[in-house]
Amino acid sequence: MQEIHENLFLSPEKLKILQLERFNQALYRCRSAELYRRKHSGCPLQINTLEEIVQFPVTTKEELRQSAPLGTLAVSPEQVVEYHESFGTTGEPISVWLTAADFARWTQQIEYCAIDFSPGDTVLVRFPYAISDPAHIVQSAAKKRGACVVPVSSRTVVSPHTRVIKLLHKLKATVIGCLPLEAILLAETAKLMGYDPARDFPHLRGFCVAGEMLTDSRKALIEKLWNARVYNMYGTTENGNIAADCSAGRLHAAEDHFLLEVLHPVTNKPVPPGERGILAVTTLTLEACPLVRYVTGDIVTLTPSGSCSCGRTGQILQHLGRYSDRLEINGTTIIPGDLQEAVLQTPDDLIGSLWMIGVTGSGLVIRAESEHPGADTASARAFLSGKLKIPVKLELVPIGEMFDRNKLLEVSPVIKPKYVANWTAENHYPRTLGQLLSGYHTF
Ligand SMILES: [Zn+2]
How far is the CA of 51 from the centre of ligand 1 (A)? Predict the structure, then answer.
């Protein structure tokens, strides 16, 4: 294994000292940005303990949208070397500027992932190269470690799924970086091309995935499809990569770069340790666009690393989906992470790798492709209703009915997916995953 940064193994006491020092430096840098000059005008210039962070107001996505493109910039324009944007729910982009040192730090955060790029690796980077940043930093991390990068960008007509599979085979590629769903669609494409993804790519040693919530069951599903390890990464366009899988498959937070809080979704007050809440991030090292107590909108838990076999001391982050994607049905709240786990744990192997969910008012309809479309679903429905605590209807269809695999052979980009639709009117609900993938419905 390559050298890993010593900060991953700091004792809790030493980490607190580092975080406090870096927080006060970040606070100083923030004051050069118009947004924080205003927001922090009545706040202390520095703090003496990390607990004092609650004296600072949270930063919202809306504030970042309103501040774009220059209001969050804390350095002079001559110092920035890259610009990216993220799109929020309103469609208004958030601006992210990076200095050369910021880009190097973002690269290091990817290196924290135990995928451990090495000389001899051939890495297919299947994140979109346009506007967003993951493709660029994964590429940077792979090259820095001596790996060879093949930029097979997603969402472009230049590199359809079939071409990626041909390159995977021809180049004996060892790693693919992509969205979790993309790993599933690439496996489907490989099958259409006559390959067995679990057997015919023995040189493929792993995936590094990001950009979508990935529960343990979905990770296991992808690992089974490809007979290869899946390493998860969790980050946001505004912050960088906040947590990365260790060799034991646990998502450790990069606490030398980020001060993380878990807040109540309504009050923004910290929740008790280990409980679910919304992740708020303070960037400790970013120069160009530092953020203080930025409320990400993602539901997470943070738990101590305990005695993780990898030896890292960073807290374990569990990402359970976006708070705005939760379902409220007859007084029951269902969050995306619980929904995905329940679906994938459905007994008797009834649910295949592609499924989608509709909200019907009093309950849920789960429509899934299945190897056993005519099977009795009574015990599966009982399991799902029990897990989710609402009525669940299960609709099994033959493989291929929900998603036309021939689309994978076409030269057309696949957009970022959505899995949950509001099926308020029976005749309006999407019948195929293709309709969801193409953004046919709004959510
Ligand atoms: Zn670990």
Answer: 26
